């Protein structure tokens, strides 16, 4: 049985002006988007309201982050309910850039997952090892167990996990100055490795919640998906779609990635 592929555009801290955000979203809408794929944009918070007004029902919206608290004195934070009320269906939690550049811990990520679920948002939990020779079993087990502590099996149907090998994206930096100047990784991942990581994630979920939840869990691939390699990753049976960074900011490239999802449904 084939599952609907999910393609998420993580715009990160781009584009710099609202007109460009609108141009990108309207450009996407002008294409005939596949019915058999879920297309999601995760823009910076400040563009969410405008995109909601302009994206219709065809494109879903995601927050890039969520506060670990429900409400109150948390300057600069955005709550799950605020995201829900703005029209988001999803929220990315634990992105590697938040873990390694903004110092998010497994404990904070766990609270964020719970806030997302409480606010009726689907969390897209990002996990992944930093270095290619890191112990992937140990790291993914720790990140997944840490993120899901206290989360009931009945809530598993609302979870998505994105595997992000950090070494395939960009080099994490210990300090802000070097984080700002970092460049894209020259160390691409392979579809075979991505699939084995996706199966490992399902195995960890299976051990925690049982085989049925593991089978049905959508695992996305998020390690530098481009218009050239999208099909190789998305076509794998155990991979349910992609979390796309830089390539999602270029309309023609992103449209090609979406088409790859349509073909590989
Ligand atoms: P890139 O696709 O720009 O490498 O980023 C991947 C990523 O971080 C997706 O969230």
Task: Describe the model.
The chain has twelve helices and eight strands. The chain has an eight-stranded parallel barrel with strand order 1-2-3-4-5-6-7-8, surrounded by five helices. It is globular and about 45 Å long.
Key terms for this structure?
single chain; 265 residues; alpha/beta; TIM Barrel; eight-stranded parallel beta barrel; 8 strands; globular; binds 1,3-dihydroxyacetonephosphate
Q: What's the structural domain tally?
A: 1
CA-atom Rg in angstroms: 17 Å
Helix percent band: 40-55%
Structural class by secondary-structure content: alpha/beta
Low-pLDDT stretches are: none
Give the topology string: H per helix, E per strand: EHEHEHEHHEHEHHHHEHEH
Q: Give the mean pLDDT.
A: 92
Please state roughly what percent of the residues sit in beta strands, choosing from under 5%, 5-15%, 15-25%, 25-35%, 35-45% or over 45%. Answer: 5-15%
Outline type: globular
At the first level of CATH, the class is: Alpha Beta
- CATH level-3 fold name: TIM Barrel
The set of bound ligands, ions and cofactors reads: 1,3-dihydroxyacetonephosphate
For the sheet with most strands, the description reads: 8 strands, parallel, barrel
Number of continuous helical runs: 12
| Count of DSSP strands | 8
Write the layout of secondary structure elements.
Blueprint: E1 5-10, H1 18-29, E2 37-42, H2 48-55, E3 59-63, H3 80-85, E4 90-93, H4 96-100, H5 106-118, E5 122-127, H6 136-148, E6 160-163, H7 166-169, H8 176-181, H9 191-209, H10 211-216, E7 219-221, H11 230-234, E8 241-244, H12 251-263
1,3-dihydroxyacetonephosphate is lined by residues 10, 95, 164, 169, 222, 224-225, 243-247.
């Amino acid at each position: 049985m084939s599952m609907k592929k999910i393609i998420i555009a993580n715009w990160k801290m781009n584009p710099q002006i609202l007109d460009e955000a609108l141009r990108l979203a309207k450009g996407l809408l002008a294409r005939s988007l596949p019915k058999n794929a879920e297309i999601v944009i995760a823009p910076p918070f400040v563009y969410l309201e405008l995109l909601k007004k302009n994206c219709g029902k065809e494109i879903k919206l995601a927050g890039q982050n969520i506060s670990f608290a429900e409400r109150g004195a948390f300057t600069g934070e955005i709550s799950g309910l605020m995201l829900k009320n703005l029209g988001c269906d999803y929220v990315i939690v634990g992105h590697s850039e938040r873990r390694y550049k903004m110092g998010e811990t497994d404990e904070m990520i766990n609270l964020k997952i719970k806030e997302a679920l409480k606010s009726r948002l689907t969390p897209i939990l990002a996990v992944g090892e930093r270095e290619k020779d890191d112990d992937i079993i140990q790291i993914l087990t720790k990140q997944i167990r840490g993120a899901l502590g206290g989360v009931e099996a009945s809530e598993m149907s609302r979870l998505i996990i994105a595997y992000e090998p950090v070494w395939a994206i960009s080099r994490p930096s210990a300090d802000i100055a070097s984080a700002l100047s970092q460049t894209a990784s020259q160390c691409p991942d392979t579809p075979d490795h991505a699939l084995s990581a996706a199966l490992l994630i399902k195995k960890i979920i299976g051990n925690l919640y049982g085989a049925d939840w593991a089978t049905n869990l959508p695992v996305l691939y998020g390690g530098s998906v481009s218009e050239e390699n999208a099909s190789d990753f998305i076509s794998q049976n155990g991979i349910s779609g992609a979390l796309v960074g830089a390539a999602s900011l270029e309309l023609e490239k992103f449209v090609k990635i979406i088409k790859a999802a349509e073909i590989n449904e």
